[in-house]
Amino acid sequence: MPEHIYFSSESTLAVPFFDVDTLEVAWHGHYVKYFEIARCDLLDQIGHNYNDMRQAGFAWPIVRLEIKYLRPARFGQKLTIRADVVEYESCLKVRYTIFDTLTHTVLTRGFTMQAAVRLDNGEMQLQTPAVWQQAIRSHTRFSDN
């Protein structure tokens, strides 16, 4: 059964020279950075980014990461990174699809899972804080259907 998408955003970038090897292929570790760029854009669009999370008293470390490489990204290639929030109540799970902006060929898929951790005592939360749930639910593009 496909996961429900509660919120989506898209970010774009061109693969920079310093991300590639001598064959002009993006090094596999940079895809985590591309996910991070898309996730930060997504959180900014929701209106509750990492600064807001910290001010609310929580850190949000990655507790799980999965990447499936389908095709290589190359120097100068224009990429679109789609980020979909597929879980927000027990954790923040974001699913990513990286594709070529011009051809829409899918290059990479993956997801990250983050858990809220209280800054005052380091306690991991089993449910995401109410302030985060309220922020995403109140956004005009939130989809509960």
Automatic annotation (TrEMBL):
Pfam families linked to this entry: 4HBT_2 (PF13279)
An example molecular function term from Gene Ontology annotations: fatty acyl-CoA hydrolase activity
Keyword hit for Manganese: no
Superkingdom, natural source: Bacteria
Designated name of the protein: Acyl-CoA thioesterase
Organism, scientific name: Conchiformibius steedae
PANTHER family referenced in this protein's UniProt entry, alphabetically: 4-HYDROXYBENZOYL-COA THIOESTERASE FAMILY MEMBER, NOVEL THIOESTERASE SUPERFAMILY DOMAIN AND SAPOSIN A-TYPE DOMAIN CONTAINING PROTEIN (0610012H03RIK)
Keywords: Hydrolase
Listed transmembrane segments: none
Family designation: Belongs to the 4-hydroxybenzoyl-CoA thioesterase family.
